[in-house]
Amino acid sequence: MPLALLEFSGVRNLSPARLTIHPRLNLVVGPNASGKTSLLESIHLLGTGKSFRTNRLEKVLQHNTDTLTVFGRCHTGADDVALGYQRRDGENEIHINGEKADHLAALAQRLPLQIISPDTHFSFLKHARFRRSAIDWGLFHVEPEFFGLWSRYQRLLKQRNAALKQPGKAIDVWDDSLAEAGEQIQSQRRSYLDRIKKYIDQYSKQLLHDADMTLRLRSGWRQGEELAPALKEDRARDREQGFTHSGPHRADLELLLSGFDARQEASQGQWKLMTLVLRLAQLEDFVIETNRDCILLLDDLAAELDQQRRRQVMALLASLPLQVFATATEQSHLDTGAWEGFKVFHVEQGHITE
Ligand SMILES: Nc1ncnc2c1ncn2[C@@H]1O[C@H](COP(=O)(O)OP(=O)(O)O)[C@@H](O)[C@H]1O
Ligand SMILES: [Mg+2]
């Protein structure tokens, strides 16, 4: 469901704006520090209630302003959906078609989006939490029951961790349900990765040439063991340290380049290409499994790739039913040859013109 209209105010250095969006390709062009990434950030807020640059939303709020607002209107044939996100006094407020919603997931369900940027390459390299959530993005959007399962697991984990901190309080009452939900999450993650393997192979052939890229999931507990006995074995250690050591909340996704851990061995350029391959594979899986459109925020591609690879990526993206927002300092950095139509937004010191 492409975004047709975007309005915002109070976002970083950007002046309030009301933009009519192209259904396929939107180029965001402007000099350094003009506000290009901030424009992508505002769309990301509308689709997730989160920034991809910081987990402190107060940083995104414009200096000397107390309210940040993003509003969007999406078209799907006959249907129109209006989405609103507001941040004020440290609280989020979400509106769907004028009605208040109480969960950020309500935004994500309506506005699936994916982001490829220098910021996300870095966090993906540094933190297992981002690598886990890459897998869970796919499951959240493709498997209808995943969100419920994941929420249940988080709730049980929280209860167990709270009990661990109270001396004498039994924890074994949580373990069976926790183990069951945990095994289910692990098995869904595994099938998802098996399913996207064919796309990983296809895109890595195109973008990584001879190097062979594979994914390996680490479950988050002792290899080859089931979760229930692992939880039982951990009880003394968990109690001592006040948290649950084993479970899918400790899982990790390893990216292997010709069989070796890419985080240790790949060059920066190779790492960026590998995360790009992973995202492309996920996007392709998403559109095939759900038959829905997806937004892709593509920040500063020129900083990542040489001209030939940029052209390849732009052509690959044109073949998927995506709505793309791509930033660059020069329009010529982004090859639009494979696209039927597009729109250019110029950003200059926070002012956006079409
Ligand atoms: N909370 C804020 N309020 C006002 N300006 C900000 C805030 N946070 C960052 N900025 C400024 O916004 C400008 C635009 O940043 P950015 O969107 O990253 O630019 P670009 O991606 O075009 O290089 C920068 O000059 C930055 O200093
Ligand atoms: Mg930028």
Structural features, described:
The chain has 354 residues and is α/β, with parallel strands linked by helices. It folds into two domains: 1-112 and 292-354, 3-Layer(aba) Sandwich (Rossmann fold); 125-291, RecF/RecN/SMC, N-terminal domain (Glutathione S-transferase Yfyf (Class Pi), Chain A, domain 2). Helices cover 44% and strands 24% of the residues. It is built from eleven helices and 15 strands. It has helices spanning 36-48, 105-110, 118-126, 128-142, 146-164, 172-207, 227-241, 262-265, 268-290, 301-304, 307-318, and strands at 3-9, 17-20, 25-29, 67-76, 79-88, 91-96, 99-101, 113-116, 213-218, 252-257, 260-261, 294-298, 322-328, 343-348, 351-353. The strands form three sheets. It has a six-stranded antiparallel β-sheet with strand order 2-1-4-5-6-7. Strands 8-12-13-3-14-15 form a six-stranded mixed β-sheet, sandwiched between helices. A three-stranded antiparallel β-sheet has the order 9-10-11. α4 packs across α6. The chain is globular and about 65 Å long. The two termini are 22 Å apart. The mean pLDDT is 94. It binds adenosine-5'-diphosphate and magnesium ion. Residues 36-37, 299-300 line the site of magnesium ion.
Write the layout of secondary structure elements.
Blueprint: E1 3-9, E2 17-20, E3 25-29, H1 36-48, E4 67-76, E5 79-88, E6 91-96, E7 99-101, H2 105-110, E8 113-116, H3 118-126, H4 128-142, H5 146-164, H6 172-207, E9 213-218, H7 227-241, E10 252-257, E11 260-261, H8 262-265, H9 268-290, E12 294-298, H10 301-304, H11 307-318, E13 322-328, E14 343-348, E15 351-353
Helix pairs in contact: 3-4, 4-6, 4-9, 5-6, 6-7, 6-9
